[in-house]
Design goal:
Helices cover 73% and strands 0% of the residues. The protein is mainly alpha-helical. It has one domain: MetI-like (MetI-like fold, Orthogonal Bundle). The longest helix is centred in the first third of the chain and has 36 residues. The radius of gyration is 24 Å and the shape is flat. The two termini are 29 Å apart. It comes from Jiella endophytica. Belongs to the binding-protein-dependent transport system permease family. It is a multi-pass membrane protein.
């Protein structure tokens, strides 16, 4: 039996070898190639003229890149934090077995089925001073009402956050609701007997139990932050000025519009290092450390 099992395992491994070769070539290979290009003087086309860290010096001396990174931090914190809170609250409401639960769940989750391009266009229309919510409300007689965030330099970044929350909160709601439905009823019975308020049960008992789902939601939302290009282009196109510029748009603009491949790949490499600096410690703590503890016990 052991020999047969070993042969089956070896056969499965051999079958997967082409797949792993494609993965290494398509993902690892292209990442290494991108990093290598960032050390060259590439403009319109890649070249092998190496200039050391010149592209990185240009990158971090660029006011546009510094503003882009600041916008990414603000957008990321507000988007991820807001989506987690709003999605969890929606899940708590639906977990009360409200009427029309299936309809409400579909309504809340529907925006996530749209692309960021569609979301951006919808909110661009809604925030357009000439034909959106502002015009409608002022037409009703409230002439002092203002909702022109997408063209307001101080509020444009928050317009991106609002549009992102509208789309992503439904995904978090679905994840959290699945977790809440798996909570043992005995926990609620014990809390009612002890007279513990429901909000304390949710905050100190249920939320820690949902930690794996919360981590999953954070990873998915963080990926959306890193690749947030289409939402920016559709809603504000990075403006007014560079008020809503995000790293993905900076990279795409330098890659295709400004024909500066070296600078674009340097920015992409910085994004890769930033993501790796966050994910690698988490992966190590979540998987390898637990595996070592399990082996030790």
């Amino acid at each position: 039996m052991a020999a047969a099992h070993r042969r089956t395992f070896n056969t499965a491994t051999l079958v997967l070898v082409p797949f792993w070769l494609v993965v290494l070539a398509a993902y690892v290979g292209t990442m290494l190639w991108t990093v290598q290009i960032s050390f060259t003087a590439s403009k319109l086309l890649p070249v092998n003229t190496y200039v050391g860290f010149y592209q990185y010096e240009r990158l971090f001396s660029s006011t546009r890149w510094i503003v882009t990174m600041q916008n990414a931090v603000i957008f990321g914190v507000l988007f991820i934090g807001g989506a987690l809170v709003l999605g969890f609250l929606l899940a708590v409401v639906l977990d009360q077995r409200v009427r029309f639960e299936n309809t409400l769940r579909t309504i809340f989750l529907y925006p996530y089925a749209m692309s960021f391009i569609v979301t951006g266009l919808i909110w661009q229309w809604l925030m357009n001073p000439g034909l959106g919510i502002q015009k409608a409300v002022r037409g009703w007689g409230w002439t002092g009402f203002s909702f022109d965030w997408s063209v307001d330099r101080d509020m444009a970044l928050y317009a991106l956050v609002l549009a992102g929350l509208w789309q992503a909160s439904g995904l978090v709601m679905a994840l959290m609701l699945a977790g809440l439905r798996g909570v043992d009823d005995e926990i609620w019975k014990a809390s009612r007997i002890d007279g513990i308020p429901p909000w304390r049960v949710y905050l100190f008992v249920i939320v820690p139990m949902l930690r794996p789902l919360i981590v999953t939601a954070v990873v998915l939302l963080a990926i959306s932050v890193v690749k947030a290009y289409d939402l920016v282009v559709a809603l504000t196109n990075g403006g007014p000025g560079i008020a809503t510029e995000l790293p993905a748009k900076f990279v795409m603009d330098n890659l295709f519009t400004r024909q500066n491949i070296g600078l674009a790949t340097a920015a992409a490499t910085v994004m890769l290092i930033t993501v790796a600096a966050v994910l690698v410690p988490w992966i190590y703590a979540e998987y390898f450390r637990k595996a070592r503890k399990g082996a030790a016990t």
